[in-house]
Amino acid sequence: MIHAMIFDLDGTLVQTERLKALSYAHAAKELCPNGVSEGEVIEAFKEVVGLSRQEVATTLMERFKLAEAARSRMGEFGVSTPWQALVQVRMKYYEAMLDDPEVVLAHQWPHNVALLHEARRIACKTALTTMSYCAQARRILKVFNLIDEFDFIATRDDVEHGKPDPEIYELVARELMLHPNECLAIEDSPVGVKAALAAGMWCIAVTTPFTRNRIYGGHLIDDRWVVDDPGTLTDVVREMISERTGD
């Protein structure tokens, strides 16, 4: 039986992946105004969705040859490496977007939020597992009025290892006092799917333009548990719950 639904945040409940991609694109343009286009950075970001800030920044910095320009900004931010400087440059753009409630609300994924509300309606336990830090996650949840919709919220602050390590999902299962195979994870990225599966949970991948190709290319789960059309999400969830009930 499935007794809990566990939701990712970035890319699942809210399209922050697009906002993050835009922030890196703006930062790259600031550091190298004549050497890179916004579209190129956004496309490259699709390859690193779900990875840590260090991994994302390092990859994009190397791809677009931003190291020297970023190194020249290290003193300004009091950081020790060029990738940290790149992160600081893009954070001013990202924070500006998050500070605008209308921008955040416009980037909600309504199908996944509707599923969260349905889970609460049928008295299914709910939790959040996000690689965003606590303050940032709560700021987004507050805009959506979703903080009270979860029995437990786990963020990057709560674990030593980020996804695809299963630590954050194992933590949630313990806090909900459930066996992992009683939990259904709703994810959008390959690293999230890997984390949920490694923890022993069932998982449905609801793809986005940033993750679709990598979800299918990774062959992580059966295609019947991959949702491209939001209109089919409820049916796919019901099918999985029915299958688990029959076990």
Report what the structure shows:
The chain has two domains: 4-15 and 106-245, HAD superfamily/HAD-like (Rossmann fold), CATH 3.40.50; 17-102. It has 13 helices and six strands. It has helices at residues 16-31, 38-45, 53-63, 67-71, 74-77, 82-98, 101-106, 110-121, 134-144, 167-176, 190-198, 212-218, 233-245, and strands at 4-7, 125-129, 152-154, 183-187, 202-206, 226-227. The protein has a six-stranded parallel sheet, sandwiched between helices. The mean pLDDT is 93.
User: Strand pairing plus helix content: what structural class?
Assistant: alpha/beta
Radius of gyration, in Å, reads: 18 Å
Order of helices and strands: EHHHHHHHHEHEHEHEHEH
Q: Could you say what the CATH architecture of the largest domain is? A: 3-Layer(aba) Sandwich
**Biggest beta-sheet profile:** 6 strands, parallel
Give the spatial strand order of the biggest sheet.
3-2-1-4-5-6
Which segments are poorly predicted (pLDDT under 50) over 5 or more consecutive residues?
Answer: none
Distance between the termini: 8 Å
The DSSP helix count reads: 13
**What share of the residues lie within helices?**
40-55%
Count of separate structural domains: 2
Query: What is the molecular shape?
Result: elongated
Overall number of strands: 6
Q: What CATH first level of the largest domain would be assigned?
A: Alpha Beta
Oligomer: single chain
Beta strand %: 5-15%
| The CATH homology group name of the largest domain | HAD superfamily/HAD-like
Output mean pLDDT: 93
